[in-house]
């Protein structure tokens, strides 16, 4: 989070990011004046900056989608309420951790190994899913409990919007309604968990068609055993391979 859109403030934020995550070999962005100015400064440090085509914001559709979903959830959650700078920064760091824990794709053909690959796996190898992330303590101050409620509400909204956007994206890309097939790793919507960073995933075992021949439900193998869920609650992973034509 930065206090202004100046190149100087961005470079400070970049320094903080690279100190925690390591220096990236290359960066990609739109053609904002802030980024253009930063690129000329960081070029001396060997950072390669790739810009998308001018006046073509859809070229950055992937990150614009993530930013848009987060902003929309933040506006709906906070509304007209006010937060101090450090409080908002703390909330956004928690949201960052949760978003980076979203599953991208399966990396194993073993049906019992459904641990997906996540953005966090590229940022820090020993990323831990803290079970305390969604819990509250009676010893916390009232303001801290308020921050936790904001994070929980924001994450719930973001997750719901993300799943809806994920299905719309796949429909628009393929022009058809894609259904999970046996062997696909899917996200399961609505599964309760005390851990905000945990997404419930599973491998589709069997499809259950309705009278019209279309799949209406599926048996999914999860770490807790087999469950039966409606197709509407199952989502293909973000980076799942498209069907072959």
From TrEMBL:
Domain of life: Eukaryota
GO terms, biological process: DNA integration
Secretion signal span: none
UniProt xrefs under SUPFAM superfamilies: Ribonuclease H-like (SSF53098)
Transmembrane spans: none
GO molecular function: nucleic acid binding
Integrase catalytic domain ranges (all copies): 1-127
Protein name (database record): Integrase catalytic domain-containing protein
Native source organism of the sequence: Amphibalanus amphitrite
């Amino acid at each position: 989070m930065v206090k202004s859109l100046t190149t100087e403030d961005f470079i400070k934020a970049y320094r903080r990011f690279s100190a925690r995550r390591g220096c990236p070999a290359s960066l990609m962005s739109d053609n904002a004046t802030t980024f253009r100015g930063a690129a000329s400064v960081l070029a001396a440090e060997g950072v390669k900056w790739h810009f998308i085509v001018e006046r073509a914001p859809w070229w950055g559709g992937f990150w614009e989608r993530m930013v848009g979903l987060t902003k929309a959830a933040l506006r709906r959650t906070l509304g007209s309420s006010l937060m101090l700078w450090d409080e908002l920064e703390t909330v956004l760091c928690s949201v960052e951790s949760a978003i980076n824990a979203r599953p991208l794709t399966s990396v194993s053909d073993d049906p019992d190994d459904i641990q997906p690959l996540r953005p966090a796996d590229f940022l820090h190898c020993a990323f831990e899913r803290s079970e305390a992330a969604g819990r509250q303590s009676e010893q916390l101050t009232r303001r801290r409990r308020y921050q936790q409620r904001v994070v929980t509400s924001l994450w719930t909204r973001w997750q719901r919007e993300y799943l809806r956007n994920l299905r719309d994206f796949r429909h628009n890309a393929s022009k058809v309604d894609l259904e999970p097939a046996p062997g696909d790793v899917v996200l399961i919507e609505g599964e309760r968990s005390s851990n905000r960073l945990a997404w419930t995933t599973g491998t589709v075992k069997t499809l259950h068609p309705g009278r019209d021949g279309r799949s209406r439900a599926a048996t999914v193998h999860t770490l807790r055993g087999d469950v039966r869920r409606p197709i509407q609650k199952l989502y293909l992973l973000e980076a799942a391979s498209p069907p072959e034509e």
